[in-house]
Amino acid sequence: MAQTEANYLWRRRAHRRFELQFPVRIGFESDGVRLEVDGVSKNVSIGGLLVRSVTAIPQYTSVSFVVSLHGRDAVRPVHVMGEGEVVRAWKHEGAYLMAVRCSEPVVHLEELCGFVTKGMD
User: Fold this and answer.
1) Which stretch of DSSP H or E encloses residue 41?
2) Are 37 and 58 in contact (CB under 8 A)?
3) How far is CA 84 from CA 3, 6, 62, in A?
4) By residue range, what is the domain housing residue 91?
């Protein structure tokens, strides 16, 4: 990606993104049945996350999620919960990518991600 394109994308983003891969469990309803899908985050921000999974969740589906953050020095993971909507979903390299926009900002996520990445150095 060209530097000018990267700068443009950075200015368009409402929230800072962290390129972190952590387990994510996404819950949603389909035909009146509660389902759960496991995935891995590709990136996270206080406003949303991008998740990779072998199971697709349709665009515009309301979801709840739990991201399990952990660092090298962590005794146990920190579970960050939220709710949102799948705003984009597409197939990519044999799996599915789903962009989830949070209903409300996950306000402590930036602080936790900073702590987690610090523990990984």
Assistant:
1) strand 33-45
2) no
3) 31, 26, 6
4) 16-120
pLDDT higher at 118 or 33? 33
In this structure, what DSSP letter does residue 18 have?
B
Report how many domains make up the chain: 1
- What is the per-residue pLDDT across 51-77, written as a single tens digit (0 to 9) for each? 999 999 999 999 999 999 877 666 788
DSSP of 55-115, one letter per residue?
Answer: S---TT-EEEEEEEE--TT-SSPEEEEEEEEEEEEEEETTEEEEEEEESS--TTHHHHHHH
CATH number of the domain where residue 90 is located? 2.40.10.220
**Token pair in block for residue 117:** 């990445």
pLDDT at 8 (0 to 100): 44
0.85 exceeded by pTM: no
